[in-house]
């Protein structure tokens, strides 16, 4: 296989980070991977081995923490590209909100600074659809990459705000101080699909809570879903394709699916795992009333009201993307992961 460029991937232990590393190695790239603790490197190698990577000559690890300068300069050395995936992923309301924001913004600014210093060609950042359309309620048009979530809206979760603020700070850096450094973002909706090991991301909690019956009455909230294999592939395309420079890319499978539809899909396709999936549906007015008192319900209303008619023109035309899976296949692959690793 021909020798390709060297790519620094941050967050090698993560659900998405590991999938990106797998695809880069399969495609002949040399990969430098950051982990917070070098002890995790063995686990990453073991997982990649189980997923048919046979040679590890092109993979090295370096310890780096988003909130500290240590090792970033060394990490960037010899790299042509950086894929900045690492970021805290959390769904519960943190005790200290300011502290929860810090790693996402500090981390991407640190990465851009050191990438520029090392003359890296392009940084691709994993942002989030939460930075694009969580407050876009105008259904007369598609939600596009020109939209930005309004972070002053109190119903937007701390996590989504942290991603929005971090992405804005990154574009600001590029505009003012970026020099020749190129930059693009991938903005995925909820990522599901198969995990390469027993580590699953926070996005799986919803499926776990449906399957273990914790969601007793299912609200009518629509969702957009994207497969982790597709999100990984889109990062690599955004790195390789010249026209991707300077662009944001919403990553979503076509269409949308509501929580009650997901519940029906699980009962139909995985009946052996779905005995505890509730058949009760929450009327919309109940969610509206609950939102007056409860932050989660407030977020639920936000999710229900946002315009989920998303434009995928950029990923299809500029990145020439052809999804590997439909949203239903992606959901079922995630459920199979939960079963395989006994996470139910
Ligand atoms: P994940 O499995 O929790 O991975 C997060 C990764 O970030 C881990 O490798 C973690 O390292 C690393 N990390 C967290 N805080 C760090 C810090 N302070 N310094 C260095 N590394 C740190 O989550 P994921 O789903 O793969 O998420 C990957 C990216 O996709 C994130 O940027 C996330 O915001 C974005 N995203 C995810 C979804 C989704 O539905 N999952 C949707 C849209 C966007 P440790 O193992 O050491 O904790």
Overview of this structure, please?
The chain has helices at 15-26, 41-50, 72-76, 97-117, 158-177, 205-211, 228-240, 259-269, 284-290, 295-305, 313-317, 327-340, and strands at 6-10, 30-35, 59-63, 81-84, 122-126, 182-188, 190-192, 218-219, 222-223, 225-227, 248-251, 257-258, 281-282. The protein is α/β, with parallel strands linked by helices and 344 residues long. It has one domain (6-201, 224-255, 309-326): Rossmann fold (3-Layer(aba) Sandwich). It has a 7-stranded parallel beta sheet with strand order 3-2-1-4-5-6-11, with helices on both faces. Strands 7-10 form a two-stranded parallel ribbon. Helix 4 links the parallel strand 4 and strand 5. Helix 1 (15-26) packs across helix 7 (228-240). The model has no long low-confidence stretch (mean pLDDT 94). The site of NADP nicotinamide-adenine-dinucleotide phosphate has 24 residues, from helix 1 and strand 7.
Number of helical segments with 4 or more residues = 12
What order do the SSEs take from the amino end to the carboxyl end, as H and E?
A: EHEHEHEHEHEEHEEEHEEHEHHHH
Q: So, CATH architecture?
A: 3-Layer(aba) Sandwich
Compute the number of structural domains: 1
Instruction: Return the CATH topology.
Output: Rossmann fold
Largest sheet: 7 strands, parallel
Structural class, by secondary structure, is alpha/beta
Radius of gyration: 20 Å
The gross shape turns out to be globular
CATH evolutionary superfamily: NAD(P)-binding Rossmann-like Domain
Total number of beta strands? 13
**Strand line-up across the major sheet:** 3-2-1-4-5-6-11
End-to-end Cα distance = 40 Å
Q: What is the CATH C-level name?
A: Alpha Beta
Mean pLDDT: 94
* Distinct ligand kinds: NADP nicotinamide-adenine-dinucleotide phosphate
Q: Helical proportion?
A: 25-40%
